[in-house]
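Researcher: Dear colleague, please comment on this protein.
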Amino acid sequence: HHEFILDFLLRMTRPHRVAARVVLPPPVVPRMIAAVRENLGNYETRFGPVAPAPQPLDQLTPPSQPTPQELYDDLRLEDEMISGTYANAVMVGHTGTEFSLDFITTFFPRSSVAARVYLAAPNIPRFLESLTHSWDQYQQKAEAARQRQEGDSGESFEDLPDDPELLPGD
């Protein structure tokens, strides 16, 4: 519960594979959601509403989206990608056709882009919805853990230290 993991999937081939795995500290996630939302608004102001992704002509009904479990059951994850890339900042930009997400690691003496991910513009609304949903679930689980911890120790969560390394019961 001290990190938030984003997997970006390349689904153009079978088996699907993780193209990038980024590990973020939780405080970065709401700022990222806000940045993506702001860039989506700027995109729509400049280019109009994001067009939906095109569907193949031979498909009369859109395919159902697989569940995360179904995706991971069939997923190929390279060994060097298992631990992911740490980032503690995100910059979002866009052109008329795609959005770029620069995941930045800021350590003294300088910052650097640890991972860069490009998403086609039609994928951004779904990405934003998925990210927001995952963040909401994360917050619910964190709140449940806090409440359990309060019940176990008899002290309130506000009395606990801010440093996650110092939390009792980990």
